[in-house]
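Collaborator request log, item 7. Partner lab (contact: R.S.) asked for a structural prediction of KCTD2 protein to inform their binding assays.
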Amino acid sequence: GSAGPLSPPAAASKWVRLNVGGTYFVSTRQTLCREPKSFLCRLCCQDGPELGSDKDETGAYLIDRDPTYFGPILNYLRHGKLIINKELAEEGVLEEAEFYNIASLVRLVKERIRDNENRTSQGPVKHVYRVLQCQEEELTQMVSTMSDGWKFEQLISIGSSYNYGNEDQAEFLCVVSRELNNSTNGIVKEPSEKAKILQERGSRM
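Returned to partner:
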């Protein structure tokens, strides 16, 4: 037989097996070395004594981390996008991104967590409702002059309960609402003096 160690064929060394917490992942050296400062790059590209990397019996690098969160890490190295399944906690991915020392990913996950906190920290959205009473002809004007933040909720026809002179106009109650946490200056422009009087009269009843 021939003496001396056989160097592995190039193809074999291109692929890297990782055993992350008992789950196998296969990737290429090129992918794993996308972030030069990362733990994964040091692990498989500078396979030196400094890391003292352990391999299991299959030759896979042993990494004692949670495999659940390794998927998004590996995928990020593959295509540069942060994709996290709904059931995974961003904090878990952040933890791993920090462990593997992938700075750009740490930044991305932190941004994502911050966005989510902004979305949820407002707590339950409170709404302010207003009921405006107006006549048929004033409806379009009122809806079109509603200021920002106010949303048209409902229109209730209350028949023609008030008779001005001979004109018998249909009256409506117009319900509008807005979220409290947007801006505090959402003022509904009242459609007309007449509607205001009606509104007051209605509220006294």
